[in-house]
Structure formats: structure tokens, C-alpha cells
Design a protein that fits this description.
- This protein is of the alpha+beta class.
- The chain contains eleven helices and four strands, in the order βααβααααβαααβαα.
- A four-stranded antiparallel β-sheet has the order 2-3-1-4.
- The chain binds guanosine-5'-diphosphate and magnesium ion (MG).
């Protein structure tokens, strides 16, 4: 078994996840609202900055594994099929292996269309809690009450027609491996702060 990293040795209350308020979220003035919702739930911000790195930086942020790119291609293809769009006609292929890299390029264009706000959030089950508060990937499927459900209206039909990524306001790590990679990618150890929230003794 691999030796646990310092990250794995953290107390469960210190599970960490990375959030990016995407360029559409920043331009719509939703940074404060996003932070409010995370803080209100009892999650702790331990790092925060506004940055506008270029496409190579986002190329290294998003997974490069074939499995992830294939899944992205499959998700996109299923949205084409669900809404009666012809992927072959519109993208020149209906092969998820070829669609995946195209969507990945669309994501890089979207993420560099303005500054993003990068945040590390810490707390019990922080990864799942933040995903829940954020809502599912597709705004048209996101429940009211979730961030994407309350503030975004984009759909895969529109995005795929326009050959661009779905505008869904926030990125949030999906699992521990993603969180570990992403936090290291965006922040140095010295930028991760250690402090106690006033309610901690009562909440846990
Ligand atoms: P997330 O973890 O919920 O952000 O979703 P993914 O990691 O699967 O996808 C990354 C980003 O790609 C999403 O946030 C969207 O901006 C975009 N995206 C995902 N699926 C699709 C799709 O089917 N079509 C298009 N055009 N963009 C997509
Ligand atoms: Mg993701």
C-alpha cells in the first residue's frame, strides 16, 4: 500500500477541496454569494485568490487520463442523443474518444475567458458537501437551492451547438485524488491557512 501523504493524515474535519468560481461566476458578481453558501454550511475557507492563468495552466488542472477524457466525450454524446442532436453532423464524429478532447479544448477556452477565484475549502466531507451545494454539472438538471440550480441556465444543447463548454459558474473537485492534485496545483503549502472558526466547538 502506498504511504499516506500529509494530506491523507489530516483529521476528517480537515478534508479539503478546491473550488474555482469560473469566469462567468466572477463576471456576474457571484463570488460573494458562492462564498456565503459555503461558509453558511459550516465549511471553512483556508485559501483564496483571484487569478487569470493561461490555457497551459488549465491543461494541467484538468485530468489528462484517457478515462476522464472518454467520460467527458460520452457525457457530451449522451446529451446530443438525449436532445435529438446529430453529433456526427455537428462535430464531424460520434466517437466519444474523439469528442472528449474537443470538449476538453472548449473547457480551456471557457476557463481563460476571464479571471477565476480559487478557493480551498476545509471541513468534514468537504468534497461531497461542496459538490452538493454546487449542484450537478448540467444547469438544466440542477435542483433549485443548489448554486447552479439557482443561478445558471445553460444547457448541453446550447453549449454543444455553440461548440463551447457549459457555463456552470463553479468548479469543485469530484473526489480525494482530484482535490489533492488541484490544491497542490493552485496553492503552495504556505498559502493554506490554519485557524479555528468560532462555532467549531459547537458544530462538531
Ligand atoms: P463538473 O465536475 O461538474 O464541473 O463536470 P466535469 O468535470 O464532467 O466537466 C468539466 C466541465 O466541462 C463542466 O463543468 C462543464 O463546464 C463542461 N462540460 C461537461 N460536460 C459537458 C457537455 O456535455 N457538453 C459541454 N459543452 N460541456 C460540458
Ligand atoms: Mg469535474
Amino acid at each position: 500500500m502506498a504511504r499516506p501523504s500529509a494530506f491523507d493524515r489530516l483529521h476528517p474535519k480537515q478534508e479539503r477541496t478546491l473550488v474555482l468560481v469560473k469566469p462567468d461566476g466572477v463576471k456576474r458578481g457571484l463570488v460573494g454569494e458562492a462564498i456565503r453558501r459555503f461558509e453558511q454550511r459550516g465549511l471553512k475557507l483556508i485559501a483564496l485568490k483571484m487569478v487569470a492563468p493561461g490555457q497551459p495552466y488549465f491543461h494541467d488542472h484538468y485530468p489528462k487520463e484517457q478515462a476522464w477524457i472518454f467520460r467527458l466525450g460520452e457525457k457530451t454524446l449522451s446529451a446530443f442523443q438525449k436532445y435529438g442532436l446529430d453529433a456526427k453532423k455537428m462535430l464531424g464524429t460520434d466517437d466519444p474518444k474523439k469528442i472528449g478532447p474537443k470538449v476538453r479544448d472548449w473547457i480551456l477556452e471557457y476557463m481563460t475567458s476571464g479571471p477565476v477565484v480559487a478557493i480551498v475549502i476545509e471541513g468534514i466531507h468537504a468534497i461531497d458537501m461542496v459538490r452538493k451545494i454546487t449542484g450537478p454539472t448540467l444547469p438544466n438538471m440542477a435542483e433549485m437551492g443548489s448554486f447552479r440550480g439557482d443561478f445558471s441556465v445553460d444547457s448541453p444543447t446550447l453549449a454543444n451547438l455553440d461548440k463551447r463548454a457549459i457555463h456552470n459558474l463553479i468548479h469543485a473537485s469530484e473526489n480525494a485524488a482530484e482535490a489533492r492534485h488541484e490544491i497542490k496545483h493552485w496553492f503552495t503549502k504556505a498559502e493554506l491557512h490554519d485557524y479555528k472558526r468560532a462555532e467549531e466547538d459547537v458544530m462538531f
